[in-house]
Amino acid sequence: MLPILMSLFGIFHSLSLDSPKVVATSKYKGIFQHLKDQERIKTIDGPPMGFKPVIPKIASPSSEHCSDLKYQLHVFDKMARGFWLHWLLPMLLGTLSAAYNIGIGKSDITGPAADIVMMGFADPTESAAGILSRLYTRAFLIEDVATNKRIMFVHCDLMSVMQLVHQEVLTKLATKYHGVYTEQNVVLHASHTHASPGGTAGYFLYDATTLGFVSENFDKIVNGIMDAINAAHNSAESGTIRWNKAEVAKGGKNRSPSAYLANPSSERAKYASNIDTTMRALHFFNSSGKLRGVLAFYPVHPTSLTVKNKLVSGDNKGYAEFLLEDELDDVIVAIGIANAGDVSPNLIDNGNGTFRGEGNTTIESAEIMGKRQYDALSALIKGKSELVEGSVIANLSYVDFSNVTLNGVKATTSDPFATRTCPAVVGQNFAAGTEDGRGPSTFTEANLKGNALFKAISAVIKPTPAWVQSCQNANKSRSSKLVSSLSLSPTSRSRPWRADASETP
User: Fold this and answer.
1) Residue 505 within a domain
2) Which residue, of 70, 247, 369, 505, has the greatest Cβ tally within 10 A?
3) Does 326 share its domain with 276?
4) Within 13 Å and on the Cβ side, how many CA atoms surround 449?
């Protein structure tokens, strides 16, 4: 038997404008055992269709303040810069042989496509004005026949599946399925496209730049996810799962190589590159051996379409999904985000702190990077793969990352917070953005001088508590302590901007 370790990453941001009670969301472990098999999977060839924009006539969506919503929100937060490492689904070696019931479903979640701000670049001027490609949600049900344990994995062509969306989906599932699908076995995952409409959040930090809550978009996403789950549930039948992986050539570029070099040399020596270049895929078959669906993961940002883009789109991952589903016979294909923290799809360095794609236009750049993911996954579908066997297991724990005890260190008079993590703050340089999309010109990366504008904004909103500053400064260099910060801790304001608690498997 060949043990396989596979980590599946997505985007799930926790948001609310009101002051929710802290209840954390869930993350899952699926455990499978893999056996070698030399069977090849045949595909049906067909010419891919074009990727043409469609400009619809859509009424402007109404905006409502999130405080009108009466939801108990699940609390979730991110530990790293940007939008990554939110959903982790390790596929580990199992020891028991089992058969699976497999269900797959798909639904449209495009929603309004005019006069609604996109979510991702945090720029209120990035307002949608049409559709380049529609957005979909794809649900994959895996049930262990021996134990009746199941996992419903739902992939969405969105920047992130907001916490408010997750809460509403769970509420609807509880009403319809009476405990069959809960936070313990439902994973809502996003591709992380920055060309999907926003306004479905809740916390001010994320909703501010989308100019509020848009119920039309929220309802479309929630109902679409439910439709995909229902389709997967109702289509469940006996089947098999196969697994394989491959390298993707020119599939991304590290946009922060100097930061990567700060990792210990012993750790960097373990890898051939400063990015993960591996695509991993699960292939789902019915009992007759027909391919029903593919769930793949590749770590590159879907940011080929820049902040200047005005068309709703799944970006490079959406294009790859489109090509494969158009080519294959009645097969549902999802390509999710993985560990893409600093992996840019834009390979050309402009020499001024920004990157651009390889195409003559951003749409061409999205097609180029999408085609590379399509090529890799198409080869995986046709190539050798390993049979997945074993039990389906889901485990969950909750962690408040603002107050984690650190072992092996001692607090001192000069460093009283050495034994714990700190409530989150954002430094002034976060507003500088990234190589894929810069923020206001007054902010620049690596600026260690206090920014007067940021200081003023921070002071007006609410000063960072002294103890939080001391806690954060314990691990900073002397010069970086001068950089202005803004506290995001729920304990530092009456209405938290985001949350501290997260889940781990």
Assistant:
1) no
2) 369
3) yes
4) 5
| pLDDT score recorded for residue 61 | 37
DSSP string, 290-323: -EEEEEEEE---S-SS-TT--SB--HHHHHHHHH
What pLDDT is recorded for position 502? 55
Query: What is the number of domains present in the chain?
Result: 2
User: Is residue 324, in this structure, part of any structural domain at all?
Assistant: yes
Strands 237-247 and 278-286, how do they pair?
A: antiparallel
Whether residues 419 and 320 share a domain: the answer is no
Specify whether 414 is located in the same domain as 372. no
Q: Determine the pLDDT at residue 503.
A: 52
Which pLDDT does position 468 carry in this prediction? 83
**Residue 426's closest CA among 410, 407, 439?**
439
Parallel, antiparallel, or unpaired for β 501-504 and 397-400?
antiparallel
| 42, amino acid identity | K
C-alpha to C-alpha distance for 455 and 244, rounded to whole angstroms: 50
- The whole domain housing 470 covers 403-488
Q: Is residue 144 located within the same domain as residue 213?
A: yes
**Catalytic sites, residue numbers:** 344
> Are the CB atoms for 500 and 400 separated by under 8 Å?
yes
Question: Model's pTM, two decimal places?
Answer: 0.76
Which residues are documented as binding site for Zn(2+)? 192, 301
- The list of the chain residues with pLDDT below 70 reads 1-98, 396, 429-433, 439-444, 446-448, 450-451, 454-455, 457-460, 462, 474-505
Q: How many CB atoms lie within 10 A of CB 265?
A: 7
Identify which of 261, 286, 315 has the alpha carbon closest to the alpha carbon of residue 135: 315
> Is position 240 within any domain?
yes
Residues 310 and 437 in one domain: no
Q: DSSP string covering 386-430, please? A: EEEES------EEEETTSPBPTT----SS-TTTTB----EEEGGG
408: left (phi over 0), alpha (psi -120 to 50) or beta: left
3-state secondary structure of 141: strand
- Residues 417-457: pLDDT tens digits? 889 988 887 777 666 667 777 766 666 676 667 667 766 76
* CA separation for the pair 233, 335 (Å, rounded): 21
